[in-house]
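Form P-L/3: holo structure prediction, ligand alpha-D-glucopyranose.
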Amino acid sequence: MDKLKWWQKTMVYQIYPKSFYDSNGDGIGDLTGITQKLSYIHNLGAGAIWLTPMYSSSMIDNGYDVSDYRNIAPEYGTMADMEALIHEAKKYDIRILLDLVFNHTSDEHVWFQESRKSLENDKRDWYIWRDAKPDGSPPTNWRGIFGGSAWTLDECTGQYYLHTFAAKQPDLNWENVKVRQAMYDIAEFWLDKGVGGFRIDAITYIKKPAVYDDLPIDGPDRMGNVHQATANQSGILDFLQEFKQAVFTGKDIVTVAEANGVKAEELKYWVGETGIFDMLFEFSHISLDMEESSLWYQPIPWKLTQLKRALSESQRATSNNGWYPAFFENHDQPRSINHFFPEAVDAELAAKVLATVLLTLKGTPFIYEGQELGMTNTAWPSIQCYDDISSHGQYQLARQAGLSDQEALRFIQKYSRDNARTPMQWNNQKNAGFTTGKPWLPVNENYRNINVACEQMKENSVFNYYKKLAELRKNYEALLQGRYQELLKSNESIYAYLRILPEQTILIICNFSDKQTAYELPRELIINKLLMGTYADAPENRLRSYEARIYLCEGSNVL
Ligand code: GLC
Ligand code: CA
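OUTPUT (holo model):
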């Protein structure tokens, strides 16, 4: 049997530093705060932390607008704090994975400051500059991912620059070899400091199309989503192979790339031995309710069979190529309980259903801060309450399409990235124990019941359920290495699958509906014992509302 690498046997805990823990009372989470909570993360069972950007930044996208890749944002601390975090984490056998934001910089980065000065500047070609159309309008009708044109006119030289995301996030020109080398050097700089690997941000956008044409209009602003023009363009793999050779090859690190727009059949070029990264975040299971154009006010209804098909397809695709990074949440997504279940759901049971799947699919589970507590969405009364830049863009689009303020707000409440960014809920004290000052974003009001301190005490809390699942993964090899096989495929209430090794088979079976549901398993499958469940008992052949169970099965030659 293959020997698994360290990152295949552990779980990754994702931290959004601004919202995790504030050690100095300024209302903003910081690096020292993370260091102080390492034992908590260790106790949960995670062996790595994906830290979203902590570099110097103009902070319009909370760190994804980097102004200096080799320095730390002062609100998060100092380079010494960062070194201490890496060092202390090692003592807990936790490796720190950094977020490489390499598609764009902040417009406050010195490179861009230089680039914009003149057509002849040394750094002019480090970014993407184009002339206006003859009528003075932007070079193409592309809409940036956060809304508005993907082009901004720079008065100084009269040309437009391209930004896939916000105007303060100009795209780098990866065609320029000096740009590429500068990025590789940055990655090396952090490897020298002892980080354990990288999550690579928005990497499918680095290669631009050969020709810049207008897109078909797909929104009320008469623009087309830039994603359609710039995601996963041919030639991108040449850049990425070079990146791999220059930085990753031969090192004991892990790489996981955010790869919107890569299809399952292309996976072999992206991951594994011959590919580039170890893992790829793809969004098929997360974006069932959203059109490609990502207009939040136009969600589409979806069924459980679609979710199951998406997950099974990803499991199949990664069974030979690479390895699956399982996730239901991150800092860009609403809370999973609200994303996957109706409003009236029993939130605790729903959280446990998702935990069960997350930790038993074949792959490395990624847990986003607070998910292990069953944290939920918030709903604020006006668009002004929202910090997230994409919420504002989406609100504008909804209003342009004729929705009322209240209608538009409803979609922001459901999909805003701020849902994931409210402060971590540590205890039932003021500000959920996140800060002694004024939190930069309001704490979710449900913190009195949903918080670390309460859940650690309560035996059947969501937190303790995660811990038990993490233990189970350690004790049952089939959960790490076993082949995945889906059962009851057409069932619209139940998601069931096996993890199969020659000497061990495990059945995972979850009811995603609020109805008691009977089921029939294949005759060959003989159930041996219940390993975990979310109700006190386990009547045969039926699951109650939002019930999850894990069984050890008899024999090896099942199915
Ligand atoms: C990625 C990040 C997101 C960020 C964007 C621009 O999608 O996950 O948070 O806003 O890239 O860097
Ligand atoms: Ca602070």
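COMMENT: The longest strand covers residues 494-501.
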